[in-house]
Design a protein that fits this description.
Strand content: 5-15%
Order of helices and strands: HHEHHHEEHHEHHEHEHEEEHEHEHEHH
Number of helices: 16
Largest sheet: 8 strands, mixed
Shape: rod-shaped
Number of strands: 12
Length: about 525
């Protein structure tokens, strides 16, 4: 008998983190999708930033000094930079800049890409403009800076005109009075008026000499040498990392919301019983028996499962065992047949009772012994299956009877156990439990129940219902035997189906209708090679 190191030892690691990583790696397509989306996002950012250039210009705002003020005023209190910033972003400045650029109708569009900022505790305005080319960005930035200074200069000139207009009117009025007094010959008060006229003329001269320029350009905009933002390799790397994180999160969400049991731990948690083996998926409906006929890993996995059902001791009596599936599952037949062959290799006289109503019958797909004279305890309706190398077991198909209407036939425990001898190892292959709950009458009469399912296809809710039904009926679940799902890639599935068709055409020697000259129950060498290649 083989050692306890079986096919599914890689699932015995209790490390939950490793198990969680293994679960997420089942959704490799989701992770790859997240990475692809991240790369596409990075490429999109590269395209957005590749054609954007930003040019910067700085303007020193000159403070206005009141020519009539006799007290000095601090420069910080003479200019409101917040007000100047709003004026720089006004429509008047935009229209002046658009005319300078010979685009008078695009003033509003130019403002959308303009930014004007002011550093704290300074009188410097920073103009920044973003455009599709470096030359245009510099040209528009300089146009806005010059338009702002021109607008500020015009406002200063308008202020000078308003202030001098009133003084010049007073000078004109005083001059007329002086001339009138001279013509009348009156000299009283002329000197005072002339002195007042001189003061007003001096003030007008001082106001007109006031510097009306709005400020100075301390930094002229130049065409930038490279686009804005991070460079393309950084954006691609950022998209790759973000996509990987997105893919992992999506894979974790899928694994958390997946209703199917995708790991051994989930099966054990839902069923409340250990997983005794994870077997390869059956290749076809005709290739059921491997133990005794082949020596590949599939046969060794079935032997390991049989060893674990005995509790690790080949001398322990098996008793009666019921093999059940939650729903329709073709892998249960292969497990039942190969378990019977594995127990028969240990010297047990095994009886396999098939209670499933299917077509074709299980006996039609197994190699039968040519004569059963050595078998004196074959029950009525039973046949002897030749597993190879002198290993035989008995197969009996249990009829479930008919009801005379559309209701499904009912399996009774008394009829199923009528052919069982006390102390004889017996395996019962039953219909799906959740579709035929009448098999619960048999679950409480056997020594143990083995639940069979496909890892990745069986639902956790179905396992919980099986656990509840068997526990409430008084049965005992010994464990679960799982096999891998049969979903494959399209090309590989086509190749495997072609191989199976050729294998079936040359494997007719394994059927009961084989010619008398052949060795009954032994596959011909070519058919065996095809079967092994298909299983690989």
């Amino acid at each position: 008998m083989t050692s306890s190191a079986g096919f599914d030892d890689r699932y015995d690691d209790p490390d939950q983190l490793r198990d969680q990583v293994r679960l997420m790696l089942r959704y490799r397509a989701t992770i790859v999708l997240g990475v692809v989306l991240g790369l596409l996002g990075g490429a999109f950012l590269v395209l957005l930033s590749a054609g954007n250039y930003t040019s910067t210009s700085e303007v020193l705002v000159r403070s206005r000094t009141d020519p009539f003020s006799t007290f000095g005023v601090a420069a910080d209190n003479q200019v409101s930079m917040g007000t100047e910033q709003q004026i720089a972003l006004s429509a008047t400045v935009a229209n002046r800049a658009a005319k300078a650029l010979h685009q008078p109708r695009r003033a509003d569009a130019l403002l959308r890409d303009l930014r004007v900022t002011n550093a704290k505790d300074t009188q410097v305005l920073r103009f920044e403009y973003t455009a599709g080319t470096a030359q245009r960005a510099a040209r528009v930035t300089n146009a806005f800076a010059q338009a702002y200074l021109a607008d500020r200069q015009n406002r200063s000139k308008d202020m000078v005109k308003r202030m001098t207009a009133g003084m010049e009117g007073q000078i004109t009025a005083l001059s007329k009075r002086v001339n009138a007094m001279k013509s009348d010959g009156s000299k009283a008060g002329i000197a005072a008026m002339q002195q007042q006229i001189g003061i007003l003329q001096k003030r007008v001269s001082d106001i007109k000499s006031y510097d009306t320029s709005g400020g100075d350009i301390v930094r002229r905009a130049e065409p930038p040498t490279r686009p804005d933002g991070p460079r393309s390799p950084w954006l691609i790397a950022l998209g790759l990392i973000g996509g990987l994180v997105l893919g992992v999160v999506l894979a974790w969400l899928r694994s958390a919301l997946e209703p199917r049991a995708r790991s051994v731990g989930e099966v054990q948690g839902a069923l409340g019983a250990p997983v005794l083996g994870v077997l390869p998926a059956p290749d076809s409906d005709r290739d059921l028996l491997y133990v005794g006929r082949t020596e590949d890993r599939r046969a060794e996995a079935y032997r390991t499962l049989a060893f674990r059902l005995r509790g690790g001791d080949s001398g322990t009596a098996l008793g009666t065992l019921m093999i059940v599936t939650p729903k329709q599952e073709r892998g249960a037949e292969a497990i039942a047949v190969n378990l019977a062959a594995a127990f028969a290799e240990s010297g047990d006289d095994v009886l396999l009772v098939d209670t499933v109503t299917h077509s074709p019958a299980l006996s039609a797909r197994l190699p039968l012994a040519a004569d059963d004279r050595e078998q004196t305890d074959v029950p009525a309706g039973g046949v002897v299956v030749e597993a190879g190398r002198g290993v035989r077991f008995t197969l009996r198909s249990e009829s479930r009877g008919t009801t005379g209407d559309d209701r499904p036939p009912v399996l009774t425990a008394a009829r199923a156990l009528s052919c069982v001898d006390p102390g004889r190892p017996t395996l019962f292959l039953t219909p799906p439990l959740l579709e035929h709950t009448d098999v619960l009458s048999l679950a409480q009469r056997v020594d143990g129940v083995l639940v069979v399912g496909a890892l990745g296809d069986i639902r956790r809710d179905d396992l919980k219902r099986v656990r509840e039904l068997i526990s409430c009926s008084g049965g005992h679940i010994m464990g679960a035997a799982l096999h891998h799902g049969t979903r494959r890639r399209l090309l590989r599935g086509v190749v495997d189906r072609d191989r199976m068709r050729r294998s079936r055409g040359r494997n007719a020697v394994t059927t009961p209708s084989a010619p008398a000259g052949d060795v009954v129950g032994q596959p011909s060498p070519p058919a065996q090679d095809d079967t092994l290649s298909a299983s690989r």
